[in-house]
Amino acid sequence: MVLMEKRWSEEQIRHALEGLEGWRYDDGRIERVFEFATYADGVAFATRIFLLSEKQNHHPDAVCVLWKKVGVAYTTHDVGGVTERDLKAATMINLLYQRFTD
Fold first, then answer.
1. What Pfam families has UniProt attached to this entry (predicted)?
2. Distance between CA 49 and CA 28 in Å, rounded?
3. How much is the CA Rg of the chain, to the nearest whole Å?
């Protein structure tokens, strides 16, 4: 028997995001834009996000590589909203960004 994750309420999400730097809740998903010194740094960071998501078997809803910026968004399509897995992935990406920019 497979247990499905529960979709979090907007209140739960907003509370969790208080401790998650840079992320915001919008239109059923959480998202953040990361800034970089160069375009190449942003591409390298996006590649690391892709590798991390494969390892976790939980993929972003969107990853947008822009000029010196990378936008990332998460939602769990299976339940139609944000779950604990999305917030854990956002936490991991913040740690990745911190290590990347140190």
1. Pterin_4a
2. 21
3. 14
- C-alpha dist (Å) from residue 19 to 4, 72, 91: 25, 17, 9
pLDDT tens digits, 9-59: 999 999 999 999 999 999 899 999 999 999 999 999 999 999 999 999 999
Q: How many Cα atoms sit within 13 Å of 10 on the Cβ side?
A: 4
Report the distance separating Cα 102 and Cα 98, nearest Å.
6
Collapse the DSSP code of 96 into the 3-class scheme (helix H, G, I; strand E, B; otherwise coil) and give the result.
helix
Residue type, 55: K
State the chain's mean pLDDT as an integer: 92
Topology of the domain covering 24-99:
Gyrase A; domain 2 (3.30.1360)
Q: In whole angstroms, what is the distance from residue 59 CA to residue 101 CA?
A: 22
Query: Does residue 32 sit in helix, strand or coil?
Result: strand
